[in-house]
Amino acid sequence: MLEAVQKEHGYWDVIIVGGGATGLGIAVDAASRGFKTLLLEMDDFAKGTSSRSTKLVHGGIRYLQQGNVSLVLEALRERGLMIQNAPHLVHNQSFIVPNYDWWEGPFYGVGLKVYDMLAGKLGLGPSKNLSLEKTREYLPTIKTEGLKGGVIYYDGQFDDSRLAINLAQTAAEQGGVLLNYMKVSGLLKNGDMIQGVTATDVLSGEGYEINGRVVINATGVFTDSLLKMDNPEAKPIVAPSQGIHIIIDKKFLPGDTAVMVPHTEDGRVLFAVPWHGKVVLGTTDTPVSGPEREPVAMEEEIEFVLKHAAMYLDGNPTRKDVRSVFAGLRPLVKMGDSKNTASLSRDHTLLVNPSGLVTITGGKWTTYRKMAQDVVDQASIIAGLTPGQCRTEHLRIHGWLKNLDKSDPLYCYGSDQLAVKKLIRENPELGKPLHERLSYLKAEVVWAVRNEMAMTVEDVLSRRTRALLLDAKASVDMAPEVARLMAEEAGYDENWQKDQIEKYKNLARSYIL
């Protein structure tokens, strides 16, 4: 990938800044239309918001509550396409809304029927009211005092950073060039018009001047810093909102059904969702002053999630039950002077500056493909390219595999699992687990370095595998062996290993309570 940038002395058709869900989706769309596409990411792919989601692919029950039917319609359609295009990572998930008041059953039942209706033929199954007995059968650990029954409905669930890596691979297969650890430091201009970027390779320190017909700002919560590079007078448009998630053991919510609590004290919904053999609890909606590269969960957020979980789950999870806690920032678009981020729109916003800079922000994982389509349609006009048809609606994402054995620890790799298993056949040592509490194998580290552009121990433990999020302490135990395998694979020395282990331990501290 680096070589492709060094050898290119002409213009790229499209330069995308930002390698999260939005940027990667744009890269897939632009490259699949035949445009010469370059994506630059200052950290690792999906390092920010895109690896810290609630792991749901959903229409957004809450947006229905807010009356935003068009967003729900779009998201439900995209949810259906995601399940078709990446069945190895996106699957159907049942949710139950427990009812503790007589009116809740009919009330949520009607709302969810509307949700089903909006999904149309891309629906995942009809919602229905459940008796008290049925609700308890599905949710053996739900608090039963005052429980009247429940409503079951269906949404999607996925592994966010694994999908991001597969999108990067898909874009590369379509002819795109993508680089992580390449920080854009400035914009190249001809008069008032943008015609490229200056960038620095974070790992080597080498600088680049790269020309492009159009530059797309897909930097999420960092959107404003790129807008300021273009125009120092630019007013900020992003209001970052923090959401945290807590991971606890499966014993608190056995079975495969998730819980959705539609109304907490601050008006947000709360989810408890099974994921990779653990349970994800979340999320909060806390306005924060500015973007952070590594946001940290606040005490009051942790208390809020645990308190609400204890109100509904019998085991009363406490701090000592927390395997990991992680925080992410939503790039919500400012609406006038609204202070309450929970009410800010989750729609995406597309802006074009007089200089030709195209900015896309807001939105969510579920609608990443549609956002990309809108951006590339617009950017191709600015670049003077023939727009061509969008090809991503039914484009299979790298790793596509329909029939999965979920008990296989390598199922997330989809069609790549055969190649990972081949590594193990060639070197049986690689078939050993990295930790007794998690199902990750040594072969996955080698695979990540060779085929998934993993450059640091954090890349492997946080985003190629999900060890940091599933069990932060276990991931710290894994770090030395991961560093050793990576160094062996990429020819790094002992100093690199020591430095990487130290950096990783420092990072993991904020994930451990």
In short:
Helices cover 35% and strands 24% of the residues.
What report would you give on this structure?
It is a single chain. The protein is α+β, with helices and mostly antiparallel strands. The protein has three domains: 2-49 and 162-237 and 342-383, FAD/NAD(P)-binding domain, CATH 3.50.50; 84-156 and 239-333, 2-Layer Sandwich (D-Amino Acid Oxidase, Chain A, domain 2), CATH 3.30.9; 411-509, Alpha-glycerophosphate oxidase, cap domain (Helicase, Ruva Protein, domain 3). 35% of the residues lie in helices and 24% in strands. It contains 16 helices and 20 strands. The strands form three sheets. Strands 3, 4, 5, 6, 11, 12, 13, 14, 15 and 16 form a ten-stranded mixed β-sheet that branches. Strands 1, 2, 7, 8, 9, 10, 17 and 18 form an eight-stranded mixed β-sheet that branches. A two-stranded antiparallel ribbon has the order 19-20. Strand 9 (193-201) and strand 10 (207-217) form a beta hairpin. Helix 15 (472-490) runs antiparallel to helix 16. The longest helix has 19 residues, at 472-490. The chain is globular. It starts with a helix and ends with a helix. The relative contact order is 0.15.
The CATH top-level class label of the largest domain: Alpha Beta
Strand content: 15-25%
Instruction: Average the pLDDT over all residues and give the rounded result.
Output: 95
Terminus-to-terminus distance = 39 Å
What's the helix count?
16
Helix content: 25-40%
* CATH homologous group name of the largest domain: D-Amino Acid Oxidase, subunit A, domain 2
Under the CATH scheme, the architecture of the largest domain is: 2-Layer Sandwich
Report the principal-axis shape. Answer: globular
Cα radius of gyration in angstroms: 23 Å
Provide the CATH topology of the largest domain.
D-Amino Acid Oxidase, Chain A, domain 2
Number of strands: 20
Uncertain segments are none
Structural class: alpha+beta
Domains counted in the coordinates: how many?
3
Largest sheet, in brief, is: 10 strands, mixed
